[in-house]
Write a structure and sequence with these properties.
The protein is α+β, with helices and mostly antiparallel strands. The strands form three sheets. Strands 2, 3, 4, 5, 9, 10, 11 and 12 form an eight-stranded mixed beta sheet that branches. Strands 1-14-13 form a three-stranded antiparallel beta sheet, covered by helices on one side. The chain has a three-stranded mixed beta sheet with strand order 6-8-7, with no helix packed on it. The two termini are 25 Å apart. It has one domain: Nucleoside Triphosphate Pyrophosphohydrolase, CATH 3.90.79. The longest helix has 19 residues. Strand 9 and strand 10 form a beta hairpin. Helix 2 packs across helix 3 and helix 6 crosses helix 7. It comes from Thermostaphylospora chromogena. One of its GO terms (molecular function) is metal ion binding.
């Protein structure tokens, strides 16, 4: 693989980091969720959002809902139904406290960026509709951080349905980048009765697409995909139903693209994830 050419604007910083003149910035813990649903007879579809052109990271790229872990995501008062933080920590090879924050961030960010809420009154139940004005008020309050996710769930008598999430991958932003994330990828099926909506904010466009169609559009340069999103879509395209996706057993290993010089040009090389199924 020849890698991805680095734009000229990124070369100076990359050379500084590679030469040791500038230390890499720390990567912040983050979570992202590929929401999937059954399509119209042609295989599963995945929900994608296009980040606004003015965003500091991945501007203009189509991504899955997600974002950084908020310190309040580790609140032990958040109701929990499903695999424990300890279980998630083992899967993602981290401690239980970090895993708690990652799972909560995954659910919170999904609600903030799509309107989908993976929570319910208890084990085996899930919120049926989140399109009312009261839900929108809560979503906006979460966005401006005037409301914590724990307080929203507590007030509504809800618990996280962690069993609705599946672990999928672990990607770390290259060391040459000015803004870096240590991101765990999840997948989840769109809950029955809920629907995504164009909620604005960091996104200027949303779309449901078959993974293979999104990949084709990227190859035609109609849409832009970051390497983690491209790879995840390629993996999802291998499955013919949502049930198959949710049943996949994944071996989670960290992947971090690296910048190398090839024929006098700096390129971003993405390590081969290899066989990720157990």
């Amino acid at each position: 693989m020849n890698g991805i050419p680095l734009p000229a604007a990124a070369r100076e910083r990359a050379m500084d980091v590679l030469s040791g003149r500038r230390p890499p910035v720390p990567a912040r813990d983050a979570a992202t969720v590929a929401i999937v649903r059954e399509g119209d007879g042609a295989g599963p579809e995945v929900y994608l959002i296009r980040r606004s052109a003015g965003m500091a990271f991945a501007a203009g790229a189509f991504v899955f809902p997600g974002g950084s872990v908020d310190p309040r995501d580790t609140d032990h008062e958040i109701g929990w139904a499903g695999p424990s933080p300890q279980w998630w920590g083992e899967v993602f090879r981290t401690d239980a406290q970090t895993a708690r924050g990652l799972v909560c961030a995954a659910v919170r960010e999904t609600f903030e960026e799509s309107g989908v809420l993976l929570a319910g009154p208890g084990e085996g139940s899930v919120v049926a509709d989140t399109t009312g004005d009261d839900w929108e008020a809560d979503r906006l309050a979460l966005l401006d951080r005037s409301l914590s996710f724990a307080d929203m769930l507590r007030r509504r008598g809800l618990v996280l349905r962690t069993d609705l999430l599946r672990p999928w991958a672990h990607w770390i932003t290259p060391e040459i980048e000015a803004k870096r994330f240590d991101t765990r990828f999840f997948v989840a099926a769109l809950p029955s009765g809920q629907r995504t909506r164009d909620v604005g904010g960091e996104a200027d466009k949303v779309a449901w697409m078959r993974p293979a169609d999104a990949l084709d559009a990227a190859r035609r340069r109609e849409i832009r995909l970051m390497p983690p999103t491209y790879t995840t879509l390629a993996e999802l395209a291998e499955y013919s139903t949502v049930s198959d996706i949710l049943a996949a057993e994944r071996r989670i290993t960290a992947i971090m693209p690296v910048a190398v010089e090839v024929d006098g040009e700096l390129r971003l090389m993405v390590p081969d994830p290899g066989q990720r199924r157990r």
